[in-house]
Write a structure and sequence with these properties.
The protein has seven helices and 17 strands. It has 330 residues and is an alpha+beta fold. The strands form three sheets. A nine-stranded mixed beta sheet has the order 3-2-1-9-10-17-16-13-14, with helices on both faces. The protein has a five-stranded mixed beta sheet with strand order 4-5-6-7-8. The protein starts with a helix and ends in a 7-residue tail after the last strand. Strand 2, helix 3 and strand 3 form a beta-alpha-beta unit.
Length: 330
């Protein structure tokens, strides 16, 4: 009898081992806090690369990109001083800075192998596309910066762009118009237009810090926006891969300890002070609010009809978090 059942027992044991290994791989991933858009004296910031790296390291960030305008900082020396295993790392980057008809077209390049050169274009959309292509040619990960800065980029401009998987849904600079106005869409609204049209676009949060020596509402100070990336290790390759896959959330002050999709559930666990009140909006096609909850564990149950679902969490203290869209129908 044992001989008859032995093959089945061995198969079941092997499957159980594989499932355990898969679960171990998931649980081994952790959250890393980082900022992808920062400036130094190498362009229009007010502090040296060393001073900027020191600020983020001392404020418990895990990774940082120095994204100076049309300048790729050699980070080897900085990492020799500041990097610490699983604690802090600088990742190479650049803000490819271009314009069309006096409209600023700025696209960040993350973890490129070489400097990207502005490629110009015959329209806003063409300029974006040419610079996205340039960044991809350097093996960089392109992200459109602050679309409403100078009211430069609309959702319509982005509909035909290929190869752009990221954009800034939140930027902490005081002059970038995240909330839109005067007939221009907010960045949240723009995101929903693009997602509804079928684009797969992830939203990042940054501080776009320029000013480390002057503090005030009129200055672009550090610490106003960041992302939390879920990765297997703190390395440029692992962080860039996780960002490209959408395994992160953006924040201007709200912290999440869990973001998961399992079966028919999309689940968030929200951290915060006892006195804070949280509101979570689950958002779908056309920017429609599919569900709203005040619970610290926010759960959305898929119906099978959604093309995408994303979440925005708003704290009574003013901070927000944006999770990435999931595409249950794809």
């Amino acid at each position: 009898m044992l001989r008859k059942w032995l093959p089945r027992i061995l198969i079941a044991t092997a499957l159980a081992s594989l499932l355990a290994l898969a679960q171990l791989n998931v649980t081994q991933k952790r959250w890393y806090k980082g900022n992808l858009h920062t400036h130094t004296l190498n362009s229009d910031g007010d502090s040296t690369p060393d001073q900027v790296a020191t600020w983020y390291r001392e404020h418990k960030y895990n990774f940082l990109t120095l994204s100076d305008h049309n300048h790729l900082t050699d980070i080897a020396g900085l990492n020799a001083v500041h990097a610490a295993k699983e604690k802090f790392l600088l990742i190479p980057g650049e803000e490819v800075t271009d314009a069309y008809d006096k409209k600023p077209i700025h696209i960040n390049s993350y973890n490129p192998a070489s400097l990207g050169i502005p490629r110009h274009g015959t329209s806003v959309a063409d300029t974006i596309q040419n610079n996205v292509n340039e960044i991809l040619s350097t093996n960089g990960l392109p992200s459109l910066n602050h679309p409403n800065f100078g009211w430069a980029v609309t959702a319509q401009d982005l509909l035909a762009v290929k190869g752009l998987g990221l954009f800034e849904v939140y930027n902490g600079h005081p002059a970038v118009n995240n909330d839109g106005g005067g007939g221009f869409q907010s960045l949240d609204e723009m995101w929903d237009v693009l997602l509804t049209a079928g684009q797969k676009l992830y939203g990042i949060g940054v501080d776009d810090a320029h000013h480390f020596k002057q503090i005030g509402r009129e200055f672009s100070n550090p610490g106003k926006g960041w992302i939390q990336v879920r990765a297997s290790e703190l390395s440029a390759t692992a962080i860039a891969a996780a960002i490209a896959q959408g395994d992160f959330y953006a924040s201007s002050g709200v912290q999440l300890s869990e973001v998961t999709t399992a079966g028919s559930d999309y689940r968030l666990t929200i951290e915060g002070a006892d006195w804070e009140k949280m509101t979570t909006y689950f958002i779908g096609d056309g920017g429609k609010v599919l569900a709203k909850t005040f619970d610290r564990t926010a759960v959305y149950h898929f119906t099978g009809k959604e093309h995408y679902v994303r979440a925005r969490v708003e704290s009574s203290s003013g901070g927000k978090a944006w999770t990435q869209p999931v595409f249950p129908a794809r």
